[in-house]
Amino acid sequence: MLPQAHLARLGSECTMVAVIAKKGSQVDWHDTRRDRGPWVEISVGGGRLGWWWGQPDQLGTCAYWAYLCRSVPTPVYRLGNSLQEEVVACLLGGHGIPATVAIAAFHAVRCAGLINVALPPTADQIELVLNQPLTIANRDFPTRYRFAHQRAVRIAGALTRLASAGHAPEAPEAFRGWLRLLPGVGPKTASWIVRNVTGTPDVAVIDIHVQRAGREAGFFDPGWTTPRDYALFEQAFLAVAERAGVDPIALDCCIWQHLSQLGPRGYEPLLRRELRHRSN
User: Fold this and answer.
1) What 3-state DSSP class applies to 277?
2) Poorest-confidence range of 9-23, 45-59, 236-250?
3) 64, 2 in Cβ contact below 8 A?
4) Best CA proximity match to 158, nearest among 188, 189, 131, 136
5) Rounded to whole angstroms, what are the CA distances from 123 to 72, 109, 111?
6) Could you please report the per-residue DSSP string of 45-112?
7) Relative to the CA of 212, which of 163, 174, 270, 275 has its CA 20 to 30 Å away?
């Protein structure tokens, strides 16, 4: 459930039950019972996907995330001051690496003078830095970075490629395709870099948290998987953000911020309790 301060501000949004049609839109709405909110369908990959939108006070529904997104400020999401720095920062992050650890590792590599240099560093130079203990705020003991060798090899290869690649394309989709030629950069990491560097709302960062939220809310097909179905995930996510009337970047950041803090062991029990409450 939402905090009481949020519930007090829901106002008329809680009683929104209507037929909403947008001319030319790929999203169709239908009347339904109040407790589940409207039924919504979207066109994705040539098929149709439908689910209950929910209510703002129902944890994990689209209405919940839309309301929460409008209620909290969008955090600063750019990590570096150059394309090279953004690539390094994003390659150091991702699934299995807590954000605080990834950022500390990025700062260590940057402070070692290994990013914005004329001669790209070797993987050994980067790995040496990544193998040093990292000081993380609110942790009593130094932390070691996981996958130091793997990420060092990827970063060295990416920086070497960037040094001779020329200017990146300006169009977001072309930019993303250009980035995918770098070692270790898949569709999610490429989208992450494009989003951070350009601020475009035309790409989505489909990480593990967004996937979990989308599946629980109903707007991701449980059979989809990344990287194979990344385009389907992205198309559905952008359609939901448009229908909710929120910036896709803000929605992505909101979901990531809340679920990364809770983790699956914190979020999933809350969601199960909420579903039991709705069924009673």
Assistant:
1) helix
2) 9-23
3) yes
4) 189
5) 40, 12, 16
6) TTEEEEEE---TTSTTSHHHHHHHHHHSPPPP----SSHHHHHHHHHH-STTS-HHHHHHHHHHHHHT
7) 174
What would the two tokens of residue 269 be?
A: 């029990």
Residue for token pair 């560093």: 121
Which pLDDT tens digit goes with each residue over 67-95? 999 998 888 889 999 999 999 999 999 88
Q: What is the mean pLDDT of the chain?
A: 85
| Nearest CA among 155, 157, 17, 150 for reference residue 91 | 155
Cα distance between residue 175 and residue 198, in whole Å: 10
Residues 6 or more apart whose Cβ sits within 8 Å of residue 267: 212, 259
Residues β-bridged to residue 30: 39
- What is the per-residue pLDDT across 110-164, written as a single tens digit (0 to 9) for each? 999 999 998 999 999 999 999 999 988 888 889 999 999 999 999 999 999 999 9
Q: Name the token pair of 197.
A: 């560097």
